[in-house]
Design goal:
This protein is mainly α. The chain is 51% helix and 0% strand. The chain contains 3 helices and no strands. The protein is elongated and about 60 Å long.
């Protein structure tokens, strides 16, 4: 059983929260179906709907970054905040941050899920040797 900090540190490194193995992403937005090292299945709910938590983490992180940056810019530029720049900068932030944060939301959700629902034997598949990485 992994400790709570190690689960989240592995997730922040974009590694398997269960064992620390990886890489767990094929591309920036496509995750391996299971860990190449320990074989834990990343989609632990066969009936679907598993990644709603990942999307929620991404939404909360995006809103927190937006609110924090809005308050910081407002505080630093008061009494004449650049409203137009804040509008366009906020829109760009709200479009780009969720895409940039996407892989971390996936691995962090797996860490949260492993915290509340420990691993069971049926969560594992046979470890698959990772193929050669193709660079484009």
């Amino acid at each position: 059983m992994s400790s709570l900090p190690s689960l989240f540190l592995r997730a922040l490194r974009l590694r398997c929260p269960s064992c620390g193995g990886g890489p767990v992403f094929v591309t920036w937005v496509r995750m391996c179906p299971s860990c190449p090292s320990c074989g834990i299945n990343f989609d632990r709910e066969p009936q679907g709907g598993y990644w709603v938590g990942s999307n929620t983490i991404n939404l909360f992180a995006t809103e927190a970054v937006f609110a924090g940056s809005f308050v910081a810019v407002l505080a630093l530029t008061w009494p004449t905040p650049p409203w137009d720049a804040m509008l366009w900068g906020g829109m760009a932030l709200m479009l780009l941050f969720p895409v940039a944060f996407y892989p971390w939301s996936k691995t962090l959700f797996i860490a949260v899920d492993l915290t509340f629902r420990p691993r069971e034997p049926e969560d594992y598949v046979q470890p698959v040797e990772p193929g050669p990485r193709v660079r484009r």
